[in-house]
User: Fold this.
Amino acid sequence: MSQISVNHLTFSYEGSTDTIFEDVSFSIDTDWKLGLIGRNGKGKTTFLKLLRGEYPYKGSISTSALFDYFPYEITQEQLQLPAADFMDHLKSWCELWRVICELNLLGEGADILYRPFGQLSPGERTKILLAVLFSGEQDFLLIDEPTNHLDQQSREKIKEYLA
Assistant:
């Protein structure tokens, strides 16, 4: 068990007069499953990026946890390749057999790993990226809007999977 401690966090985007977080303090146990709920533009993604150290801020965020973040960024080159050819670049030590097991839980066959990523539907892409994300065991997962751009059936499958 590890803790993520946020103390006196204050953050605003450079050049903006709006403060996203002002003197916020709390702790999160990494054994918890949490969901951040709020309207668009209220700081959910920003908070996840602050945890990953992507923006400068005032205050402190401390943890011994290792983070992995969804969605992974896919390059133009990777769009031309099958996911089986680049998934180990998304997540170190990613093993094909584990990704295939996770895809099975998502209701997908391993065949989608061998088709060019750019030719897959948004739902198939999301399922591959989630399967890669969940193929490891040690990281604290930061999952940002996994059901965006999916049809209702795919949204339900992702919700079941995440539960």
